[in-house]
Design brief:
The protein has 117 residues and is an all-alpha fold. It has a single domain (4-116), classed as de novo design (two linked rop proteins) (Up-down Bundle), CATH 1.20.1440. The chain contains four helices and no strands. α1 (8-24) runs antiparallel to α2 (35-54), α2 (35-54) packs antiparallel against α3 and α3 (59-85) packs antiparallel against α4 (91-116). It is elongated and about 45 Å long. The relative contact order is 0.16.
């Protein structure tokens, strides 16, 4: 069993979740239960699946949860593009989130590769 709290990718994805939460708090009320909710759920899914995978017994199982986290990161990336396109977030907010996402995606890919070896 691994300690997920020691993984840099988990820590960074927690930071990303907090950032997404802060940004979506400013969304107009009509978006609170739509895109806002979906953005936050995707962001939270990333560290949650890393943590769940760490509790699994095999590298194969852990890798599956890393893959789910990676999928959630791409889903979040799509949603922030939409949020930017409909002017719910600024270009600056988009860039901050997107840069963190890219770093997380690279780290998840690296972690997945390391679990193959």
């Amino acid at each position: 069993m691994r300690n997920f709290k020691e993984l840099k990718v988990w820590k960074l994805s927690i930071e990303l979740s907090k950032l997404v939460f802060e940004i979506t708090r400013t969304f107009p009320n009509e978006h609170k239960f739509g895109l806002s909710n979906q953005l936050f759920r995707c962001a939270v899914s990333i560290p949650s699946n890393i943590a769940e995978g760490c509790g699994r017994k095999s590298d194969k199982e852990f890798k599956q949860f890393v893959s789910i986290s990676l999928g959630s990161s791409f889903e979040l990336e799509t949603q922030i593009i939409i949020a930017k396109e409909v002017d719910l977030i600024t270009l600056e907010q988009f860039d901050i989130i997107n840069n963190k996402l890219l770093e997380i995606q690279k780290m998840l890919n690296g972690l997945s590769t390391s679990l193959d070896n």
